[in-house]
């Protein structure tokens, strides 16, 4: 029997009364106790819509016997309510190796959104066990590569649809979401995003409950993408090229640094995430894939995050030397430690520069908008710019050509000749003070006069 299915968290004794209430609808697995002896109960009440899964060789036997008086008068035990078991509860999942063994806790951990099965993961429900899980989701379909049930692996949409049509699936899965089995692996060597971002709030609610995030010793904790709470340590963000290989780079970091004694206790989470992009820091405009490396350590007080900070500096320095060969085009580092705000100085300076740039652009746009508004209201008018017009100057009667003019008449421009009397009667003050202007005749060829 399993302790987790009982509200009292201990196995029922022989004198206990076991109740299967209809509202729980929890399929149970009955077998011999851990001592190898049959489990004896005084009474059992079964629901009308439940099922019992019996292990090989298990069975029921009804008899009118006595029980050990040392157990007392007995208690009423109930199955724990299985309706609240959510698919997006990280506490219900464990990472296992390809052989099915649980992965030991080591240098690698996962951000919270990736502690729930991702879209290219294989999901295994242990054989000869029973479960019921709530699939409420913000997505229409929860994508998986494959799912194993009752010892059978289902890795195609057809096989999964056939299982859903059977009698067990409605008792095992409920809620507004559905599982979609694709049978495909991640096609990129740089990795694939997990795909649980839309249900990140469900993951954090299941993980944290009403307690919320714990207090941290660092001044300004970092908030990695896909993680529910802040961390003390470092976050390194990589821009990559098509040559980048996520698994090979993870192995490189583990061999080169995490295996060193000075980095004992440092853990790393590395994965592909989608970083939101904005216009002027305000308007969203899509997202771009990046590689996120989260480094944390077990330091306390002022030492919190210092080992992770040093490892991040080593990683960034290695990228500066070998980044092109590794398929990494650029890197950025953010740090939060338990010491005074020195760890955040660089990132805060960058934020101030970015904020100043954004404010400058916004100020310029506001000034331009104000000028345009005043112009449309008629408060501002453009200053007229008058360029000299050759035609106007030639048609000006107050600008007669002097007698010494050596220019030529333009036969293409018809101007009435002025008589001498009109010139003499013109006021003296209207006479031009500037030197006379000469105009070249485009129809005149100087070579003809020379002949």
TrEMBL record:
Instruction: Give the main localization category.
Output: membrane
Recorded topology in the membrane: Single-pass type I membrane protein
| Keyword check for Heme | no
Q: Which GO terms describe its biological process?
A: protein transport; receptor-mediated endocytosis
**What domain of life is recorded for the organism?**
Eukaryota
Where it sits in the cell: the answer is: Cell membrane
Ligase as UniProt keyword: no
The regions listed as transmembrane in this protein's record are 353-375
Q: List, alphabetically, the GO terms of the cellular component aspect.
A: apical plasma membrane; endocytic vesicle
Name the Pfam families for this protein: Amnionless
- Cite the residue spans of the region called Disordered: 390-451
- The protein's name: Protein amnionless
Recorded source organism is: Anser cygnoides
């Amino acid at each position: 029997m399993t302790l987790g299915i009982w509200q009292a968290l201990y196995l029922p004794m022989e004198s206990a009364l076991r109740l299967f209430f209809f509202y729980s609808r929890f399929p149970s697995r009955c077998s011999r106790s851990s001592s190898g002896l049959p489990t004896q109960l005084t009474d059992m009440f079964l629901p009308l819509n439940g099922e019992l899964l019996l292990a090989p060789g298990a069975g029921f036997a009804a008899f009118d016997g006595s029980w050990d008086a040392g157990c007392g008068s007995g208690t009423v035990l109930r199955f724990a309510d299985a309706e609240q078991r959510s698919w997006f509860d990280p506490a219900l999942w464990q990472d296992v190796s390809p052989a099915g063994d649980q992965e030991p806790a080591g240098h690698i951990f996962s951000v919270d959104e990736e502690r729930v099965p991702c879209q290219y993961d294989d999901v295994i429900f242990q054989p000869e066990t029973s479960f019921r899980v709530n699939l409420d989701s913000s997505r229409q379909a929860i994508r998986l590569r494959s799912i194993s049930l009752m010892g059978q692996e289902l890795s195609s949409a057809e096989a999964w649809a056939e299982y859903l049509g059977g009698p067990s699936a409605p008792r095992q899965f409920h809620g507004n979401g559905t599982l979609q089995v694709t049978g495909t692996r991640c096609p990129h060597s740089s990795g694939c995003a997990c795909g649980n971002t839309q249900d990140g709030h469900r993951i954090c609610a299941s993980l944290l409950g009403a307690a919320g995030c714990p207090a941290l010793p660092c001044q300004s904790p970092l908030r990695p993408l896909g993680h529910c709470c802040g961390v003390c340590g470092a976050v390194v963000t990589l821009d990559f090229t098509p040559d980048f290989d996520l698994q090979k780079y993870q192995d490189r970091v583990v061999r080169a640094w995490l295996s060193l004694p000075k980095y004992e206790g440092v853990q790393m989470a590395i994965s592909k995430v989608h970083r939101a992009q904005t216009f002027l820091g305000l308007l969203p405009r899509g997202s771009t894939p990046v590689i996120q490396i989260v480094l944390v350590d077990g330091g306390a007080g002022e030492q919190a995050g210092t080992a992770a900070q040093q490892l991040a500096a080593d990683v960034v320095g290695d990228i500066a030397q070998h980044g092109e060969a590794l398929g990494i085009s650029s890197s950025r580092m953010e740090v939060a430690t338990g010491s005074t705000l020195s760890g955040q100085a660089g990132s805060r300076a960058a934020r101030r520069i970015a904020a100043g740039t954004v404010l400058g652009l916004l100020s310029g746009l506001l000034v331009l908008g104000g000028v345009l508004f005043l112009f449309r209201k008629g408060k501002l008018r453009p200053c007229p710019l008058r360029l000299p017009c050759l035609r106007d100057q030639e048609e000006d009667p107050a600008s007669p050509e002097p007698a010494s003019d050596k220019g030529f008449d333009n036969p293409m421009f018809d101007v009435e000749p002025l008589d001498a009397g009109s010139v003499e009667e013109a006021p003296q003050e209207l006479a031009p003070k500037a030197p006379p202007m000469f105009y070249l005749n485009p129809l005149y060829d100087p070579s003809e006069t020379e002949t």
